[in-house]
Predict the structure.
Amino acid sequence: MHYKVKCIIMRQDIVSHIGTVTQVTEGSVFASFNAGEACGSCQAKAICESGKGRLITVEAERGDNEYVVGQKINVTLDTHTASTSVMLAYVYPLIMLFAIMFGVMAITGNGDAGCLAALGSVPIYYTILYLCRRRIKKKIKFADMEFKRSIII
């Protein structure tokens, strides 16, 4: 008999996923999980890109815990930090795109120039975001909890 093992913490201040340890380093543990597993009850799952079943790998601080590759862990992130991630990845670039597009259109009167300037600004934004990744990493931290209990469904 085969059972599916699923464990989802449904606290309003924490987002949690069960992940599998893929790499262990000096101070970090890397875990992968399927982004769509916890989306069953979410109202925005139809339009959300993270709910498409992609495999996501995250880095969490290891602390004093010992991990081995293949071990199941519970990866958690508080909702404030998750919101900050969404703002940095999606909302701010969208606002910037429209602001630049309409700004250039207002200055030049040329819609094509506005669209091209806006599209050209997106890679610049993500390059700056990439260059600031160490600073952002200090603010956006995943926590890890050793996987000790499961709910069998």
About this structure: The chain has three helices and seven strands. The longest strand covers residues 14-24.
